[in-house]
Amino acid sequence: MVSTATKIGNFSFTNCLMNAAGVYCMTREELAEIEASTAGSFVTKTGTLEARPGNPEPRYVDVPLGSINSMGLPNNGFQYYLDYVTELQENPESKPHFLSLVGLSPEETHLILKKVQESDYKGLVELNLSCPNVPGKPQIAYDFETTETILTEVFTYFTKPLGIKLPPYFDIVHFDQAAAIFNQFPLTFVNCVNSIGNGLLIDDETVLIKPKNGFGGIGGDYIKPTALANVHAFYQRLKPEIQIIGTGGVKNGRDAFEHILCGASMVQIGTALQQEGPSIFDRVTEELKEIMAEKGYQTIEDFRGKLNYIH
Ligand code: RRO
């Protein structure tokens, strides 16, 4: 029997595949669709202190090789998502979940995380350090000093299982510097990667999306090599207690297999889920199981992180 079950921290999941934050997770209705699918979990849209309408439309466009977005952090406010995951956890049949959060300032982030700390929520929290699309707000995780300061402060009061959503890094020195910071903290996971920030896609002579004169986060096929490199770079550098969630360019079983081979314990689907809908989890799960069966692997631990090098 081939199984795609996995664990993150002390939480068990019947399937290692789930949505990526931002896709199918804005409303209770969308989240309920992921809950009812074969996905092992869901993560909520990144919630801020107050609800936000986000950037003007068009703000998300699919193209043959992926997507571009500048949503601008539209969300119903963190309390909306906190209430939903807290409600679901009362049902013993419920999957464990991820609550994605960030403030528009460090102060706001701490205010939100303190409220989550005081709440009855017992699941996982993902702190989004990598939103590329709020005009005037740089991606936090590209500023190592600010990142270290925020995490230092967070872990003075936050004791629930916490991970961070990272942007892609593109230099070996940055992998080294980022990992040295993350290894100082009791993080449960890091999630690699968010969209590649501030790309530009053009149709004829015009940009595809309205905000920021067309600049937006790139997802899909374009980003798989970058995502795999980030998953593996952090798998090589982080202490074993910090697990890796792999996100970026997953649309079939082979892509999920590669993320796990690079070290991912859980794999998220963003652009392809947006394009195909929640039935994608049936297809990708079956494709992943078929590859595992062909290779004689029964669990994802049989090959996780076991990427071969050429000597
Ligand atoms: O809402 C967004 O524009 C957005 C966010 Br918060 C994020 O983390 N990543 C992304 O591609 N878009």
From TrEMBL:
Which parts of the sequence belong to the Dihydroorotate dehydrogenase catalytic domain?
Answer: 5-292
Q: Where in the cell is it found?
A: Cytoplasm
| UniProt enzyme class | oxidoreductase
What GO terms in the biological process aspect are recorded for it?
Answer: 'de novo' pyrimidine nucleobase biosynthetic process; 'de novo' UMP biosynthetic process
Query: InterPro entries from the entry?
Result: Aldolase_TIM, DHO_dehydrogenase, DHOD_1A, Dihydroorotate_DH_1, Dihydroorotate_DH_1_2, Dihydroorotate_DH_cat, Dihydroorotate_DH_CS
UniProt-annotated binding residues for FMN = K45, T46, N128, K165, V193, G220, G248, G249, G270, T271
- Could you say which cofactors this protein requires? FMN
> What's in the keyword line of the UniProt record?
Cytoplasm, Flavoprotein, FMN, Oxidoreductase, Pyrimidine biosynthesis
Q: Which reaction does it catalyse?
A: (S)-dihydroorotate + A = orotate + AH2; (S)-dihydroorotate + fumarate = orotate + succinate
Comment on bound cofactor: Binds 1 FMN per subunit.
For this protein, the Enzyme Commission number is 1.3.-.-
The UniProt entry lists the main location of this chain as: cytoplasm
Show the stretches that span the lipid bilayer.
Answer: none
Record pathway: Pyrimidine metabolism; UMP biosynthesis via de novo pathway
Which CDD domains does the UniProt entry name for this protein? DHOD_1A_like
Similarity comment text for this entry? Belongs to the dihydroorotate dehydrogenase family. Type 1 subfamily.
Q: What does this protein do?
A: Catalyzes the conversion of dihydroorotate to orotate with fumarate as the electron acceptor.
Name the chain's protein: Dihydroorotate dehydrogenase
According to its UniProt entry, this protein's organism is Streptococcus hillyeri
State the organism's lineage. Answer: Bacteria, Bacillati, Bacillota, Bacilli, Lactobacillales
